[in-house]
Specification:
It contains 17 helices and eleven strands. The chain is 45% helix and 17% strand. The strands form two sheets. The protein has a seven-stranded mixed beta sheet, sandwiched between helices. A four-stranded mixed beta sheet has the order 2-1-3-4. By secondary structure, it is of the alpha/beta class.
Length: 436
């Protein structure tokens, strides 16, 4: 191992049990010997140089290409030691790495020019991968966003169901109301709202794969009269809705387009409407997207600081009624995904190849590490256009969640059947719309 890399690692890693074998075969030990052992083998001088110069990109690319491997432990165990050493910024503190990150931060807005055409290409890069791949590690409902662990012993399926209840409660949805789901994924949340509340749901996505699955699921569930999914950019919508929900989509908007996003939502939301935005954010100040994530996983993606989000909300004339920060929920979600993916790794390799599997393992491991030891979190922001739309205390949220939970345990019918409200009129065969 070259002297420069050895000095950097020795300065950073004071705890843990790390061994590094360099391309010439010599092995160096770092840390105080505590914790599970991790033994990294750097096989080539090319990988050694890449990691030394730009570890945030050089390390994952070297792992993807098979130029580094683990003789003991794995990617996640290595990232645990590294992240506990460098702290919440997730950046190795050297003069040249600071320079790299400074340049990335300076050009971050150029990397997020997400026009409609570019947004569609970016979405296709990730979400139009094989549906079978996602079924290898997601829950039964195909929820590809942070779950909500009401109890630490919850299964992934239980926690994802709890997430849907939590969001539905914050929407304070009434039977028969119209709902816009921006970034509707494989349709799980939209179908849940359509079935449980007899709501009329329009889900929009830019993913052909997700749209096809969501539409098939609506038909199979007999909900095609209430849940409709389209390949549309939210910027092209003109309808008005009682409720708007967006889960896991805002990370793809880009900081340049926040004002457009919230202005459009304000236009689409009725005067007495409610919106819930669920997205990844960071506790710290604005920074650039991780180089590996931007290049290989989510091109055009960006995780904002809250200081970048609220100015756009304010300028759009929307009122923030509630903000909730979910801290370790996504770390636990990602652990489930990582465990499931690794258990099905052979099948993933059959669908794609070994390099893809290594890339995906690093993505899931690195993401979990970022939520456990860096400054990432998930926020849920509840928005209205008037300050008298929602109750003045939060007790209604828990009350609704309990009612939904009891309803789900009892049967799988519509919650509207158990409410005192008059049932909504069925609009069979009609396109879902929020127009007055």
């Amino acid at each position: 191992m070259n002297i420069l890399l050895e000095r950097v690692i020795r300065r950073l890693v004071k705890t843990g049990n790390l061994k590094v074998t360099g391309p010439k075969g010599s092995t160096t030990t770092f840390g105080d010997g505590s914790g599970p052992p991790v033994h990294l083998h750097i096989k080539t001088r090319h990988a050694e140089r890449a990691i030394t110069i730009d570890p945030s990109l050089g390390l994952p690319e070297s792992f993807m290409d098979g130029e580094i491997d683990f003789l003991e432990g794995d990617v996640f165990g290595f990232l645990r030691i590294v992240n506990q050493a460098i702290g919440p910024t997730g950046i190795v503190d050297t003069a040249w790495t600071r320079a790299f990150e400074g340049l990335r931060a300076a050009f971050r807005r150029l990397q997020q020019v997400n026009t409609q055409a570019r947004s569609k290409r970016n979405v296709q890069r990730h979400y139009d991968l094989s549906g079978e791949l996602y079924r290898l590690f997601l829950d039964e409902d195909m929820q590809y966003s942070c779950a909500y662990f009401e109890r630490p012993d919850m299964t992934l399926d239980e926690a994802q169901q709890a997430k849907k209840r939590h969001i539905a409660a914050k929407l304070k949805l009434k039977p028969g109301q119209t709902v816009l789901d921006i970034g509707s994924g494989w349709g799980g949340l939209g179908l849940y709202l359509a079935k449980t509340f007899e709501a009329e749901v329009l889900g929009v996505t830019l993913s052909t794969e997700q749209h096809g699955v969501a539409t098939q699921r609506a038909q199979a569930a007999g909900l095609e009269d209430r849940a409709h999914f389209e390949i549309r950019d939210y910027r092209d919508l003109n309808e008005r809705f009682d409720r708007i929900v967006s889960v896991g989509m805002f990370e793809h908007v880009g900081v340049n387009h926040y004002r457009t996003f919230f202005d459009k939502c304000a236009t689409l939301l009725k005067p007495d409407g409610v919106m819930v935005l669920h997205a990844i954010g960071r506790f710290g100040p604005p920074t650039a997207t991780a180089a590996f994530i931007r290049k290989y996983i989510f091109p055009g993606g960006y995780i904002p600081a809250l200081s970048e989000v609220f100015p756009a909300i304010e300028k759009a004339g929307l009122m923030t009624d509630d903000v909730e920060i979910l801290r370790l929920h996504y770390a636990d979600t990602l652990k489930h995904w990582r465990d499931r993916f690794l258990a099905n790794r052979d099948r993933a390799r059959e669908i794609y190849d070994e390099r893809f599997c290594r890339m995906w393992e690093f993505y899931l491991s690195g993401s979990e590490a970022a939520f456990r030891w860096q400054d990432l979190m998930v926020f849920q922001i509840q928005l209205t256009k008037r300050n008298d739309v929602l109750p003045v205390t939060r007790s209604y949220i828990e009350k609704c969640e309990k009612a939904l939970s009891m309803h789900e345990m009892a049967h799988g019918g519509s919650l509207a059947e158990e409410t005192e409200a008059a049932p909504a009129k069925r609009r069979t065969g009609r396109r879902v719309s929020g127009k007055d």
